[in-house]
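Example protein
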Amino acid sequence: MGDYGFRVADCRLKKAERMKQTTKDKEMMKEKIAQIAAKIKEGGNNVVFTGAGISTESGIPDYRSQGGIWDKYRPVYFDEFMSSKAARTEYWRRWVKDYQVIVGAQPNPAHLALAKLHEIGLLRAVITQNVDGLHQESGLPDEKIIELHGNTRRIRCMSCRQIIPIENVQQRLTAGDPAPECECGGYLKPDTISFGQSMPVAEVEKAAALSQESDFFMVVGSTLLVQPAAQMPIYAKDNGAFLAIINLSETPCDEICDALIRQKAGKVLQEIVKAVEKL
């Protein structure tokens, strides 16, 4: 046959093996989607936990990956924000840039799939690490969403705790006010959790309770590395919930979950909802 003939035969064999593996992977994916859909359809306490990976498909960069927000610049810590006008000015300079990206983003198929689960009555709650407000934009009501890290679409006074209309703050920034303050004299800040700032007690407690009460718990787009948020799927699993994880990279809970899919969230969640609707 000669060297050339052997190389051709070897290439054909490898191609056949790849095609066989691809077919096997697709079948395994279908089985996992069907398994997840069946658990959702049972209609118990279905809770979904979302991280940055669900919003990257809407064009919002995450924090941890190469090229992400933390890779570009050092965070402004909460104590720096509260003690230094220069730090507050830098914080607001970054916020203006990042907020333009967020308000220009639209909910993607993953957000819309979760909104569909709510619409058909099969979603107890969404616990999210995200601050972009895209779950609300997709049609999920506020009472269904627990925001562990706040929401950058809200502005709050750090003294009187009043919520300030974001349009008001934008006008002041545009007019040249580099670090807006409340009429009470307090510092205004996007209603998100900064480095060094305490987590919101009520939201964390509610998230923990929902996780412990869940029958089905699905992680979407989170590496599960940030505490105490990362503890939620463990609470769920320890209390007997079916645990599903949809994430591109590994998580600390991969070994204990019941169904693991390493794919982008949008297409997978759309397929899961379609499977649910057929049951």
